[in-house]
Design goal:
The protein is α/β, with parallel strands linked by helices. The chain has eight helices and nine strands. It has two domains: 2-150, Alpha/beta knot (3-Layer(aba) Sandwich); 168-222, Orthogonal Bundle (Trp Operon Repressor, Chain A), CATH 1.10.1270. The chain has helices at residues 20-27, 64-74, 93-99, 117-123, 139-150, 160-164, 198-216, 218-222; strands at residues 2-7, 32-37, 50-51, 61-62, 79-90, 104-109, 126-129, 183-184, 187-188. The protein has a five-stranded parallel sheet, with helices on both faces. Strands 3-4 form a two-stranded antiparallel sheet. Helix 2 runs parallel beside helix 4 (117-123) and helix 3 (93-99) packs across helix 5. The radius of gyration is 22 Å and the shape is elongated. 24% of the residues are buried. The structure holds ligand 4FV. The site of ligand 4FV has 16 residues, from strand 5.
Length: 232
């Protein structure tokens, strides 16, 4: 997969993609990331890319011209163009799995109050939000999307089952995890995990995952096709 990230701050991305699984995934050629500075497509020689909002109001807006030219400089047949913004559909594991199937993703990182609506209508395939809060710029959102999506690219995660057993794979949380020592400051590991009965272990993990999901995110259980778990 190829990923083109369009932003005003390519330097913002120094680091997150250069360590651990993302670095290994890139080094192994599972995906490649390129950066384009929208300012290179500025309207004029003094690099102007923003202007005051029509209709007044605080802040500035990213001009349509530089953004459109930046997108068209990397766009090709089969490209999926995504704008990261608080007005997008919420990023989910399911969406990450879907995005991981594209050959070419173009990620547009917003800045200022946002981008002129006309270039969104002309060039954007979908708008995605990483959460109901406002960032200083969209670069952080692009890092979150790439990180969560890359795990679905075959070969990026060492143990493919790890992705299948992830939180949200079945629409609910993952189960609690335990490792050595068996006794930590007087706290024991649940005996079922030491009993070696894998059917019992699977059942216990499912029940624990649902219990915490019901307590913390009951909304996740509403999606399920069976009766919500009632906590006594
Ligand atoms: C955001 C989000 C986000 C809005 C103003 C960048 C900022 C500035 N992007 N999910 N939440 N973007 O807050 O994706 O343009």
């Amino acid at each position: 997969m190829e990923i083109d990230i369009l932003s005003l701050f390519p330097d913002y991305f120094r680091g997150p993609f250069d360590v651990s699984m993302l670095k290994r995934g890139r080094d192994m050629g599972h995906f490649d990331i390129r950066h384009t500075n929208i300012r290179d497509f500025a309207e004029n020689k003094n690099g102007r890319v923003d202007d005051r909002p029509f209709g007044g109001g605080p802040g500035m807006v990213l001009c349509p011209g530089p953004v459109a030219r930046a997108i068209r400089s990397v766009k090709k047949p089969g490209s999926r163009v995504i704008y990261l913004s608080p007005q997008g559909s919420l990023l989910t594991a399911a969406k990450c799995g879907e995005l991981a199937k594209y050959e070419h993703l173009i990620l547009l990182c917003g800045h200022y109050e946002g981008v002129d609506e006309r270039v969104l209508q002309k060039e954007i395939d979908e708008e995605i939000s990483i959460g109901d809060y406002v960032l200083t710029n969209g670069c952080a959102a692009a890092i979150v999307l790439v990180d969560a999506m890359a795990r679905f690219i075959p070969g990026v995660i060492g143990h493919p089952d790890a992705v299948q057993e992830d939180s949200f794979q079945e629409g609910i949380f993952d189960s609690p995890h335990y490792t050595r020592p068996e006794n930590f400051e007087g706290m024991e590991v649940p005996p079922v995990l030491l009993g070696g009965n894998h059917a019992e272990i699977r059942k216990w993990r499912k029940a624990e995952a649902r219990k915490k999901t019901a307590r913390v995110r009951p909304d996740l259980l509403l999606g399920e096709h069976c009766e919500p778990l009632t906590i006594h």
